[in-house]
């Protein structure tokens, strides 16, 4: 659809397209120039004090819209002759500079979308390192990333998703480090989407990940710019979605979800210890409660004799079998967690602490459960919260329930059977076509130095083989070992 010949027809066209034109503002400058914008989307100060003032003082006789376009001193300007592009720009807060009778118009970026100032990351907190987090503005987030990586090889491609929402997405990668096939795969998956729209990056992830039926996330959602910076340097690709304060990082391995940017800020031996605690927490969270259920139901012989007497005394008043007892406590813990997350902050904290103490004590006195199981379930729940990525923590807690059920039905054989199914499932998973259990399978022992472990940086000169990057070296290993005094 071409641009109409008059302003009245322009407004009538907007009305026919079922646009609410109550907030459409039309102002006139000299030489029959007209500026059109939505008052609640554009910056009124920018439009009135700069754009309108500049149009009033420009002296160009005679002129065309092509001649006028470079003279406008306001932001980004685009020349168009398409009505559809003009309407899309209007709905994004741009201003249309239009003159009746001309076949083209000027689009001026005067958008001022609602946004907040960058603040501390609330979900992925750390003690040492940068504290800033992403916001809902894609322009602000892109500026934060560029402040971390000021390199000419940092590429960003602007994409659009959704027939209705027309959500802007920025595809970020380092051209000399990222694998071209990975960039093409992610770009193709986004451009192939034919949907009404996406509201937030967490919804987009479910459309572009390899296996949407899996309970394990295959792409990382992060609100930390430093994690994005580390990922870009490792050859990964990042997506920024307008309106979301979470960036999408891929491809990602299963072990990546247990790595924190803080591991790089701590000394290597402390980082190895903390990362080891996280991996230990996985096994505690998944296996502790099922092992209790299996031991009390089928395998009394594995319980130490010194523990049998206090365990029997603790369970003497409990009328339920271990399976129902453990499921009751696990569901109670999940209800307390969900209630604490949904209530206001101060009320939620009180609910989690007081509710846990009161319910736990009352459950023991009423004979619903034993003291030992309360300690085991609390330790398992605490271990699941050590996972740096929230989505993986939810998956770990979910896996615990089928493990408990199979342990209550078949004992140790049920636990082994469920773990086998879990390992087979993880072996079959991929992330943007890359193996999900790398570097465990396929085995890449050199990449274990910065996944399971975190060795000193002079030993990490080679980049990971996970993304098959063309640039294999981070730095010169021999030069990194040289330590010269100033007088040398």
TrEMBL record:
What UniProt keywords apply to this chain's record, in alphabetical order? Membrane, Transmembrane, Transmembrane helix
One short Pfam name that applies is GerA
Keyword Magnesium in annotation: no
Q: Which InterPro entries match?
A: Spore_Ger (IPR004995), UPF0353/GerABKA_families (IPR050768)
Keyword Nucleotide-binding present in the record's keywords: the answer is: no
Annotated membrane-spanning segments are 279-300, 372-391, 403-427
Family under the similarity heading: Belongs to the GerABKA family.
* Protein name stated in the entry: Spore germination protein
């Amino acid at each position: 659809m071409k641009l109409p010949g008059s302003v009245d027809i322009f407004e009538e066209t907007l009305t026919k397209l079922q646009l609410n034109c109550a907030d459409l503002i039309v102002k006139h400058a000299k030489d029959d120039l007209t500026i059109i914008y939505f008052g609640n989307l554009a910056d009124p100060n920018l439009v009135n004090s700069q754009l309108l003032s500049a149009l009033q003082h420009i002296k160009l006789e005679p002129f065309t819209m092509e001649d006028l376009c470079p003279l406008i001193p306001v932001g980004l300007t685009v020349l168009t002759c398409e009505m559809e592009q003009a309407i899309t720009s209007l709905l994004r807060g741009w201003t249309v500079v239009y003159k009746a009778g001309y076949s083209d118009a000027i689009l001026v970026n005067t958008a001022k979308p609602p946004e907040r100032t960058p603040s501390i990351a609330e979900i992925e907190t750390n003690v040492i390192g940068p504290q800033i987090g992403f916001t809902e503005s894609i322009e602000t987030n892109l500026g934060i990333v560029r402040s971390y990586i000021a390199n000419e090889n940092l590429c960003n491609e602007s994409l659009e998703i959704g027939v209705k929402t027309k959500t802007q997405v920025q595809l970020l990668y380092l051209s000399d480090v990222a694998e071209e096939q990975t960039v093409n795969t992610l770009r193709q998956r986004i451009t192939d989407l034919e949907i009404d729209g996406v509201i937030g990056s967490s919804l987009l992830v479910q459309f572009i990940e390899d296996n949407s039926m899996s309970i394990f996330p295959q792409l990382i959602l992060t609100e930390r710019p430093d994690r994005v910076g580390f990922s870009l340097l490792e050859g990964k690709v990042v997506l920024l979605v307008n309106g979301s304060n979470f960036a999408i990082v891929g491809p990602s391995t299963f072990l990546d979800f247990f790595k924190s940017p803080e591991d790089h800020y701590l000394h290597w031996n402390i980082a190895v210890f903390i990362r080891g605690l996280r991996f230990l927490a996985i096994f505690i969270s998944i296996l502790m409660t099922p092992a209790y259920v299996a031991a009390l139901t089928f395998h009394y012989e594995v319980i130490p004799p010194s523990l049998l007497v206090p365990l029997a005394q603790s369970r003497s008043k409990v009328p339920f079998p271990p399976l129902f007892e453990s499921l009751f406590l696990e569901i109670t813990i999940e209800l307390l967690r969900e209630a604490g997350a949904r209530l206001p902050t101060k009320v939620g904290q009180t609910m989690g602490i007081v509710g846990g103490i009161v319910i736990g004590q009352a459950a023991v006195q009423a004979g619903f459960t034993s003291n030992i199981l309360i300690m085991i379930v609390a330790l398992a729940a605490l271990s699941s919260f050590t996972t740096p990525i929230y989505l993986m923590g939810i998956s770990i807690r979910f896996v615990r329930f089928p493990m408990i059920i199979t342990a209550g039905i078949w004992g140790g054989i049920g636990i082994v059977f469920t773990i086998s199914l879990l390992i087979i499932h993880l072996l079959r998973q991929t992330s943007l076509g890359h193996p999900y259990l790398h570097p465990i399978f396929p085995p890449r022992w050199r990449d274990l130095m910065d996944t399971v472990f975190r060795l000193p940086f002079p030993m990490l000169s080679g980049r990971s083989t996970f993304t098959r990057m063309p640039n294999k070296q981070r730095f010169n290993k021999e030069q990194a070992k040289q330590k010269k005094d100033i007088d040398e």
